[in-house]
Amino acid sequence: MILPIVAYGAPVLRKVCADITPDFPNLNKLLEDMWETMYASNGVGLAAPQINKGIRLFVIDSQQIFENQDEEDKGKYPDKPGVKRVFINAHIKEFDGDDWSYNEGCLSIPKIREDIMRPEEVVLDYVDENFQPHTERFVGITARIIQHEYDHTEGKLFIDYLKPLRKKMLQGKLNDISKGKLKLDYKMMYAK
Hints:
Elements: E1 5-6, H1 27-40, E2 45-47, E3 57-61, H2 63-67, E4 84-106, E5 109-127, E6 133-139, H3 140-153, H4 164-178, E7 188-189
């Protein structure tokens, strides 16, 4: 089932999320719905707060980026062919490498894209959908998507990395998003 995406301004997007246990109700259905919602919204990642759940859960599919790459971008990222994965109870252990810029967007903040600096590599502890533990290093575009989605579980948004003046310049657009004044190709849920 395709779920509505929570729009900028909703309190759940600013909440530090809680870990879950293997007996979390209907987890498999939730994951199925998250994948379906992410693909229907043309996303490469989706975090539980974006569907109004305050839990440490996100899904990513960086393979799409490599499958849809322009000729000029081929060979640009070291993590080809990308990964499709579920991350539950993720906690970052370390960042590594140089910071690099990439033009990011977010399903909860539609029609705004900004260049954001993030480290090249991230190491995190997480469990998969079977609650098997992993400690893994990710690089390139996959590391960036993970950091973006992980931030959602920490109550942080990509626009928080912007300089105050730039964020102030975007405030009108952000207000329009929170009030539902945009026409979108996917369903949104707005703060009341």
